[in-house]
Automatic annotation (TrEMBL):
Residues 15-129 form the Tetrahydrofolate dehydrogenase/cyclohydrolase catalytic domain. The lineage of its organism: Bacteria, Bacillati, Actinomycetota, Actinomycetes, Micrococcales. CDD domains: NAD_bind_m-THF_DH_Cyclohyd (cd01080). Pfam families: THF_DHG_CYH, THF_DHG_CYH_C. Its EC number is 1.5.1.5, 3.5.4.9. NADP(+) binds at G178, R179, G180, V246. It catalyses: (6R)-5,10-methenyltetrahydrofolate + H2O = (6R)-10-formyltetrahydrofolate + H(+); (6R)-5,10-methylene-5,6,7,8-tetrahydrofolate + NADP(+) = (6R)-5,10-methenyltetrahydrofolate + NADPH. Homodimer. This is Bifunctional protein FolD. Catalyzes the oxidation of 5,10-methylenetetrahydrofolate to 5,10-methenyltetrahydrofolate and then the hydrolysis of 5,10-methenyltetrahydrofolate to 10-formyltetrahydrofolate.
């Protein structure tokens, strides 16, 4: 926490996801070069169904950043009215494509599609999001040792962002807000692994007295997707707060779409550390996705 001279207020240290993800990209560029020297170009693919502007933005970032570090990127798109069979046929194609080491299906999918069946059809070895039941099952079962499969990108990004800011999670009480599978549920699994050793309270829409739980937290991971749900009065002074959830609304001043996080701006005056939104965990999600794919290519190439 930084004291502002003469004002009596404290301002949280910013956990800068852009800076941390830039450092990861530099490290990955070297690993990609090493793979290329062995004749292997790591390949990442994305499947986008429909034309949701936010999903298009995220998929675009994934390709731009992967290409910038020398990876091969394959962008596949289907219309919003694609059938389950069409999506599954594309999954089968990518499972068989040897130039693709890992891929993701951009979420959320249009409501008429069976998301669980689609994720389950991905070859677990190519599941760059770590959301296949086999990979999530390995995460549940293996609390102690290294895991030889991709880990969910956003939760991995949260932990990496704290690590790169010398924040030790061991023994800390982390309150996670939101139980979605891409963030909340898998966040709890990663945080309670022996290497991390945090204690987790996973809160959700059925939680009674959310404010009470938040106030106990050394670390808050806010991933509810509810604008400014975490208020200054909910935060223990000095706590680390990671703002992960996203709400898009028209800005009344500009009329343009604006990103709002789960954390009220006033939290900055109470927290010790703050990962902002945008500029925090979002860029880390993309960096850890690329890490998952590079690691898969390394495993295949026999690099430890
Ligand atoms: N298959 C998946 N789908 C989705 C995931 C995921 O991990 N796998 N997560 C989110 C979206 N997401 C990646 O896909 C993602 C979200 C945000 C960012 C990001 O860098 N955001 C910027 C702000 C950009 C803006 O909106 O203007 C930031 O936080 O600074 C990257 C990726 C849902 N779907």
């Amino acid at each position: 926490m930084v004291s502002e001279a003469g004002t009596g207020t404290m301002t949280a240290q910013i956990l800068d996801g852009k800076a941390a993800s830039a450092a990861i990209k530099d490290e990955l560029a070297e690993r990609v070069a090493a793979l290329k020297a062995r004749g292997v170009t790591p390949g990442i693919a994305t499947v986008l169904v429909g034309a949701d502007p936010a999903s298009q933005l995220y998929v675009g970032m994934k390709h731009k950043r992967s290409e910038a570090i020398g990876m091969n990127s394959i962008q596949r798109e289907l219309p919003a009215d694609a059938t389950q069979e069409q999506v599954e046929a594309l999954i089968d194609e990518l499972n068989a494509d040897e130039s693709c080491h890992g891929y993701i299906v951009q979420l959320p999918l249009p409501k008429h599609l069976d998301t669980d069946a689609i994720l389950e059809r991905i070859d677990p070895a190519k599941d760059a999001d770590g959301l296949h039941p086999t990979n999530l099952g390995r995460l549940v079962l293996n609390v102690n040792g290294p895991i030889e499969t991709p880990l969910p990108c956003t939760p991995r990004g949260v932990i990496e962002l704290l690590l790169r800011n010398d924040y030790d999670l061991a023994g800390k009480h982390v309150v996670v807000v939101g139980r979605g599978v891409t963030i909340g549920r898998s966040m709890g699994l990663l945080l309670t692994r022996r290497q991390v050793n945090a204690t987790v309270t996973l809160t959700h829409t059925g939680t009674v007295d959310m404010a009470h739980h938040l106030k106990q937290a050394d670390v808050i991971v806010a991933a509810a997707g509810v604008k400014h749900i975490v208020k200054p009065e909910h935060v223990k002074p000095g706590a680390a707060v990671l703002d992960v959830g996203v709400t898009r609304e028209d800005d009344p001043e500009t009329g343009k779409q604006k990103v709002y996080g789960d954390v009220d701006p006033g939290v900055r005056e109470v927290a010790g550390f703050l990962s902002p939104n945008p500029g925090g965990v979002g860029p880390m999600t993309v960096a850890l996705l690329m890490t998952n794919v590079v690691e898969t290519a390394e495993r295949q190439a026999g690099i430890a």
